[in-house]
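Box 3.1 — From sequence to structure: Winged helix-turn-helix transcriptional regulator
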Amino acid sequence: MEPMSTPWLGPDEQRAWRGWVEVHARLNARIHRQLQEASGLSLADYAILVELTSERASDGSARMFELGERLAWEKSRVSKQVTRMEARGLVVRRHCPDDRRGSYVDLTDAGRAAIEAAAPAHVKLVREMFFDVVPHEDVLRLADLTTAVLARLDATD
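Predicted structure (token representation):
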């Protein structure tokens, strides 16, 4: 049986892919630095706090496995991050009464205060570094593109 040949990326595809990879890495690094300097939160702290304050967690609580699924993190990463955040009083972990192995992560008042303090500067940076330089019609195209790629990822998981 002959191995399948892989069609290499063309010049436009290479430029788009490499650009996306670099933008993602550099934007995440910049956001992480800004969060650390302005609020003492890491990007991982912020991601969990966002999930606990989202519409999906209207009561400020989520199952550990749900956080992992939403953030596409391994179980151990979620657990270690929650442990670090517990030590700082941002969240508390409580056992799930229905599942002996499961637990909930609950937002504390300190966690809510931390994200409320960090969010304005975070949004300002995202707007300055991304949305202010991308025309609105391209934002719409990007939203369509990410929706299509996410649908493909969901279909192949």
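Summary of the box: Residues 89 and 134 are 38 Å apart (CA to CA).
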